[in-house]
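Limitations

Structures in this collection are predictions, not experimental determinations, and the ligand pose is part of the prediction. Treat each record accordingly. The example that follows, with manganese (II) ion as the small molecule, is included so readers can see exactly what is and is not provided: the inputs are given verbatim, and the output is the predicted complex.
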Amino acid sequence: MLNLKEVLQEAKSVAILGHIRPDGDCIGSCLSLYNYIETYFPNIEAKVYLQDFMPEFLMLKNADKIEHDYSEDKVYDVCFSLDSADKARHGEYVKYFDTAKKTIGIDHHISNQGFAEEHLIISDASATAEIMSELIGKENLTKDIAECLYLGIAHDTGVFQYSNASPKTFRVVADLLETGIEASRIIDETFYQKSYVQNQILGRTLMESIMLMDDKVIVGAVKLKDMEFYGVTPKALDGIVSQLRYTRGVEVAIFLYELEPQRYKISMRSNGKVDVSKVAGYFGGGGHVKAAGCEMSGNFYDVVNNLTLHIEAQLQENE
Ligand SMILES: [Mn+2]
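Predicted complex:
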């Protein structure tokens, strides 16, 4: 297994890269490594590069030091690629990867082919942060490092709910909790909290949702003019489909938003009876059994009818 200490002992400068549109696991993993270096290898000049950033992650130590400028042509001794299944995921920061003297990839995506010189890819780890927890080692955890790792694992497991959260994940999380982190504050402020406007759109979408197929399918939609009215981007619509799924008796939740007139982005969630990745697959999309998405053209009713035909076929098959 990769030995973090050995790698860092020989390094004077380290670049840490995540992926474009970074999520909690990406940011948590990158900052855990940064904070580890700052604590145990203070002489190393380290930098985390991420293109954009969500303000709720500022609660993590040194989140304010994340670099968003890539104009400098610096050559690093070591470049870490975290939570990124392929090189293109690094976006414009890839130049630091390409020029570094040594590259190391750490990831949990099954599609990662190992594009770095040295890599640690564990596809049954729930999150890159779970792998980082093991690499850093229980004995080296500080509260600041543990907060980053906990946030990463919590986000990639949907707060420990998805099937990727294994008994091992919980053992790692137990070690993180031992450091005294404020676990519920981290989850509340970075995962569940929404802006007032987001809650308004969520409420309105739930209120205007429709039930189909003997109440086995629920459909919610947001139109372009609604997004304009509330002044939000599609990012603000995250989580609406999950809330739709929490409707008793529902097998599949469908959430649509308008990309342009007569063009929809569709997210689906299933409780297990219907494989929504198959449904999305018919329309050029994909995903997992319980979570999938695609894009479709047509008016709202055509789009919903086309989707429910495939859902109905699967429900009948399984009965
Ligand atoms: Mn991840």
